[in-house]
Amino acid sequence: MSARKLGLNLVMVVAVASLFTGLWAWFNQPLKAPDWPDHISGYSFSPFRLNQNPQDGTYPSEAEIRADLELLSSQTDNIRTYSVDGMLGEIPRLAEEAGLRVTLGIWLSNDLEANEWQIQRGIEIAKRERSVVRVVVGNEALFREEVTVEQMIGYLDRVRGALKVPVTTAEQWHIWEKYPELARHVDLIAAHVLPYWEFIPQEHSVDFVLDRARELKKLFPKKQLLLAEVGWPSNGRTRGGAQATQADQALYLRNLVNQLNAKGYNYFVIEAFDQPWKASDEGSVGAYWGVFNAERQAKFPFTGSVVEIPEWRLLATASGVLALLGLALLLIDGSALRQRGRTFLTIVAFLAATLLVWIAYDYSQQYSNWFSSLVGILLAIGALGVMIVLLTEAHELAETVWKHQRVRTFRPVTEENAYRPKVSIHVPCYNEPPEMVKQTLDTLARLNYPDYEVLVIDNNTKDPAVWQPVEAHCAGLGPRFKFFHVAPLAGFKGGALNYVLQHTAADAEVVAVIDSDYCVEPDWLKHMVPHFADPEIAVVQSPQDYRDPHESLFKKLCYAEYKGFFHIGMVTRNDRDAIIQHGTMTMTRKSVLDELGWADWCITEDAELGLRVFEKGLSAAYAEQSYGKGLMPDTFIDFKKQRFRWAYGAIQIMKRHAASLFLGKGSELSRGQRYHFIAGWLPWIADGLNIFFTLGALLWSAAMIIVPNRVDPPLMIFAIPPLALFVFKLGKILFLYRRAVGVNMRDAIAAAVAGLALSHTIAKAVLYGFVTRSIPFFRTPKMRSSHGLLVALAEAREEVFVMLLLWGAAFGIALTQPQPSLDVYFWVGVLLVQSLPYLAALLMALLSARPQVEASSDEVPV
């Protein structure tokens, strides 16, 4: 690489790195807020730490409570408790040692017996402990509808009659407005005003609290007002405009407590310490209301500016290092890329690295148990895998669009004195329509080539009426054509090709294979065989092509999808000498084929042979020009079967050749070849993993529908990686098909629809491939008769079922969420996007039921 180009690359990388660092800095601009006052009115205090839970009967020790109270005593002289269960009943005694006054809480529920116990013990403690300055009977018990107003009044009168200290109950502010008669039975109004739960954005939240306080004072002018809970969560779901972040928590509380102090209000900040156990009752946000976290560390600075992510500089550095590592891999042998291509890959690398680091940071802020830790590990693996696939997709896009020139180009050889050895053409058949095979043989008879033979191998066709007409036709075409019918014959297509290889002419130097539906151009052999003059070339490949895309809209979509692989993927792979050999329009040097043979264990014997050729250190040539055209599947089920076979075979190959592909052992594969074979199949593996995401999404959504008040939408970090990959792949298809294949936008959309329709089939094939060793070979039928609508729907029944489940989940969430917020809308959007591949499958199935409809050259359903 020249010094000038190296300098340009360095400037470009620095510029992109500066841009992303600037984005980190912009997102984390310092925000002004008053310093935390030396003294606040009080804290709501629950002393539970990580792995402690009153519902399980696990309570903190006296020493732990003493440490908590000592910490709080530096900021306040008042705390509020909620229950007298277990060690909680000892808090007043311990608080007196720390010089703290206690507002004692008595917990009420719909368990009348438990209520009696709470009241009796609460009265005893309040009488005994001098630190108790007031008693709160019940906490939002009316709001939860666990007691009636009459019951609450009875409890209040009973406790007031037994104690000399002020007594009240604590309810949300609107409950006091709903039941104003409660005021006659309390000594003060204890109201909760929590703007977050009422969808109030942080910037309007302080005014909201002050407005509610003024309304309550006006409604109950003769009663003292206690704001029994004021607070903001630092993590959890977004509710309308209310975002649960550390920055919003800091801004809200630092502004609020200063205002409340200035106006002389009594209040309790909920709460002193995060309580992870509350997530089971209040959703994930319930764990994050503390000013201090569960490890007793302050969650935001008490003085100075507030930023969204205090550690952003460290995270920006980590994302930069990770991006540079990814970019170094992407730009290996990238000298042929134009500057735009390198810039594009740099931006994608920094974007992917930033997203990974942000996901890791965001997840690190969550409290974990064994289940969430396991989910976190799976999420990390999944996110890393998604980013790897995204980078490989970006690399293919860059090499397709922004290369100065192709590194290895193989054009037709037209010189008359070119190398043209004898060729043996093998045509495997199984239960094929005789007229179709005859058309293929007729085009082979018209080849413009001096020396060749055609061997037709029909394996395992049972009906003589199918194979005998082909045999007779071969006899009529002359001595070049030989027909073999063998039944039984094991080993799938590979077994048939190995059989006929034994009957190949001794002087043949090249073996060509075409499918029985392919009509070839007369100059196929003449133009392509001369590439074997290079002794390193073992395989010469021409693209698969099709002659029936205008028969129906279904086939038009299929054709658009096929073109991408042969005019994008195969072209970039050829530059690294890493093409996928496919079983039609392919030629192999006979000496190599005699040594290696076709793999009869593999359902895609063609691609497996090509990989073994590369493992021996030999090369392959790929020419983009089409020399033969076959027939596409007529029905959606056949389209799916074909892709299932390709994807399943890919996993078979990866498993059998894992040592050479991943470790480079026992082969002469170059790094570029290993990269392309692995990267080329990674998107299929991603489709396989996506099944688990869909299953998890449906289960989570079901829980949201069944218990909407207890189960929040998943964190966005669970959905962003697969969603980002989906959007990128879709955008790549639409861009590349127009730029590299030269189709219009409608045809690009057609390709995207057809590709999406295969996602579920590919996913199943990948999973089957990992858990099984082999499945029966199935051919792709051609020239099938049309079928009806019900049959077409049956062909996509699995996809339709999953699609309806996803739509039902989205609809159910929209109905059951009382007040949908941004994260709810986002999750509904994720479910709908996740359903698009299944919808595409339904569309393809319906179109395949109409093969009789002619499609004009520019007619594509969108």
TrEMBL record:
Q: In which pathway does it act?
A: Glycan metabolism
Coiled coil location: none
Write the Enzyme Commission number(s) for this entry. Answer: 2.4.1.336
Q: What is its main location?
A: membrane
Q: Which principal EC class is assigned to this enzyme?
A: transferase
Q: Pfam families in the record, alphabetically?
A: Glycos_transf_2
Instruction: Please tell me whether the keyword Disulfide bond is annotated for this protein.
Output: no
GO function terms (MF aspect): hexosyltransferase activity
Q: Where in the cell is it found?
A: Membrane
Ranges for domain Glycosyltransferase 2-like:
424-596
As for membrane topology, the entry says: Multi-pass membrane protein
Kindly state which reaction or reactions the protein catalyses: a 1,2-diacyl-sn-glycerol + UDP-alpha-D-glucose = a 1,2-diacyl-3-O-(beta-D-glucopyranosyl)-sn-glycerol + UDP + H(+)
Q: What keywords appear on the UniProt entry? A: Glycosyltransferase, Magnesium, Membrane, Transferase, Transmembrane, Transmembrane helix
Bilayer-crossing regions:
7-27, 312-332, 344-361, 367-391, 681-703, 715-737, 749-771, 800-817, 824-847
Might you report a single GO cellular component term?
plasma membrane
PANTHER family, alphabetized: BETA-(1-3)-GLUCOSYL TRANSFERASE (PTHR43867:SF4), CELLULOSE SYNTHASE CATALYTIC SUBUNIT A [UDP-FORMING] (PTHR43867)
- This protein is called what? Beta-monoglucosyldiacylglycerol synthase
Organism, per UniProt?
A: Geopseudomonas guangdongensis
